[in-house]
Q: What sequence folds into this?
């Protein structure tokens, strides 16, 4: 039996376009996307709440830590902050908190630090290992007095992604209070470079790279995500349909 | 006990003359589920690979690091979806993967419990003589397929490849796949040690997928050469017509 290459190609293309049509069906799409819930449920069920991401030795650090996404927000407001060394920059802590805060870089640096050498995993498939220093997020949340109604933390960023949409991300309280979740101001013993998110970025070590929001301007405690952006909990979740739970 | 023709009485009565019961229902269901799931996993896997078509050894690896393999993107007729869409490729892959993994686990337990492995796939002592191994390789190379009662038993090479695929290759694919997940790295840190790093696991996942693709191609070729209708019927209805004995 001889099957021509052309027939094979046609068959493969037909099968694939069938799949693509299937994915266009709203109910099928919903079922397909619900795998995220299974993975989140299974991973959380299999690991302790505070199970740590691996930490590496200094000699395992990547020679060059690849920067990805926005390389420079380059808005007039960001440029002004950068020009005087982020002395005028403030992190706004707002939403469902007892004491809204406005923290300067000097104030954050004066808080207890955590240092961790961890692996950054991009959704595209590459990994880079770097040494981060920053303030545990739970230290800031305790200082602000998180309300019992809060369910998520939303992070607002300085980079404009076009159409007036700024980058944003969100995590739930399990990851917000995880010991390795930090607001990092240094990478490999240097203040964060602009390409890597100066002056402050989020590290959520059990999730993929798009959760590690750069150029933080503010964070907000909320009880639901559906009123923010397009409601999916993050810029890439809204724009491209990435999973909100990025531990997969 | 005669293990050559395993004729299982069924409520519908014995099979028509010349046909024997060959494949159990559990086997047939698993086979066709695999056909659909592996097709989905391969094509969506190509789509995911296209996001970063470079492979590395060790814990980290990104564009500045040395890749052991760098490919062009796989063509659209091979990827799911047909146009580059990492988020959709991941949705397909991550929805099919747990179904595939749990079906494999169920089949492994079931086929050990019902003695399918012990009876049909385990090597017999007398099979393992050098002369027999040599003859089996030669028979395959000459495409000389067994006839009569011998066609109801798996040959040495068939046993070796089925055991290798079911108990080594497929679990390897599942475990290396799990190692790519940062959440699973925290839940099961031994996964990273087992494969020597996330980027090594990604490389092994890729190599194992192509090994499986080679198995599937040989498997399909053998089905075509051994008589596609008889083989197809046996995998749909379970009933197989042993080829008549050759004149000696």
A:
């Amino acid at each position: 039996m001889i099957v021509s290459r052309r027939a094979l190609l046609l068959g493969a293309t037909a099968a694939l376009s069938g799949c693509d049509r299937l994915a266009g069906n709203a109910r099928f799409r919903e079922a397909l996307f619900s795998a995220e819930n299974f993975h989140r449920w299974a991973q959380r069920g299999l690991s302790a709440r505070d199970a740590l991401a691996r930490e590496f030795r200094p000699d395992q650090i990547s020679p060059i830590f690849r920067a990805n996404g926005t390389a420079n927000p380059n808005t007039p407001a960001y440029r002004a902050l950068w020009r005087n060394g982020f002395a005028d920059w403030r992190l706004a802590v707002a939403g469902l908190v007892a004491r809204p805060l406005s923290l300067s870089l000097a104030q954050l640096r004066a808080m207890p630090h955590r240092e961790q050498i961890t692996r950054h995993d991009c959704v595209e498939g590459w990994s880079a290992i770097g040494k981060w220093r920053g303030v545990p997020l739970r230290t800031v949340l305790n200082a602000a007095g998180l309300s019992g109604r809060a369910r998520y933390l939303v992070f607002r960023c300085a980079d404009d992604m076009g159409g007036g949409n700024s980058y944003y991300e969100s995590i739930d309280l399990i990851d917000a209070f995880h010991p390795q979740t930090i607001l990092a101001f240094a990478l490999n013993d240097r203040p964060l470079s602009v390409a890597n998110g100066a002056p402050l970025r989020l590290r959520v070590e059990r999730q993929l790279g798009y959760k590690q929001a750069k150029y933080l301007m503010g964070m907000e405690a909320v009880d639901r995500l559906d009123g923010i952006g397009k409601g999916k909990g993050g810029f890439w979740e809204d724009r491209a349909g990435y999973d909100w739970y990025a531990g997969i | 006990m005669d293990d050559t023709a395993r004729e299982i009485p069924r409520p519908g009565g014995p099979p028509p003359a010349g046909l024997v019961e060959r494949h159990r229902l559990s086997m047939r269901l698993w086979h066709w589920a695999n056909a659909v799931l592996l097709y989905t996993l391969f094509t969506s896997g190509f789509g995911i690979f296209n996001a970063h078509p470079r492979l590395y050894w060790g814990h980290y690896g990104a564009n500045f690091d040395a890749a052991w393999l760098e490919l062009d993107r796989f063509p659209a007729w091979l990827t799911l979806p047909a146009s580059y869409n990492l988020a959709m490729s991941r949705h397909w892959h991550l929805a099919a993967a747990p179904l595939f993994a749990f079906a494999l686990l169920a089949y492994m337990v079931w086929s050990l419990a019902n003695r399918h492995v012990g009876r049909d796939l385990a090597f017999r002592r007398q099979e393992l003589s050098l002369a027999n191994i040599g003859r089996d390789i030669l028979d395959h190379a000459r495409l000389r397929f067994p006839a009569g009662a011998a066609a109801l038993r798996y040959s040495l090479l068939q046993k070796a490849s089925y055991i290798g695929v079911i108990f080594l290759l497929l679990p390897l694919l599942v475990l290396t796949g799990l190692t790519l997940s940062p959440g699973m790295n925290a839940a099961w840190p031994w996964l990273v040690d087992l494969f020597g790093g996330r980027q090594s696991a990604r490389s092994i996942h890729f190599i194992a997928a192509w090994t499986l693709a080679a198995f599937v191609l040989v498997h399909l070729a053998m089905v075509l050469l051994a008589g596609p209708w008889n083989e197809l019927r046996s995998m749909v209805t379970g009933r197989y017509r042993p080829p008549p004995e050759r004149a000696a």
User: Anything to note?
Assistant: The beta strands of chain B are 20-21, 54-55, 69-70, 239-240. Chain B is about 60% helix and 5% strand.
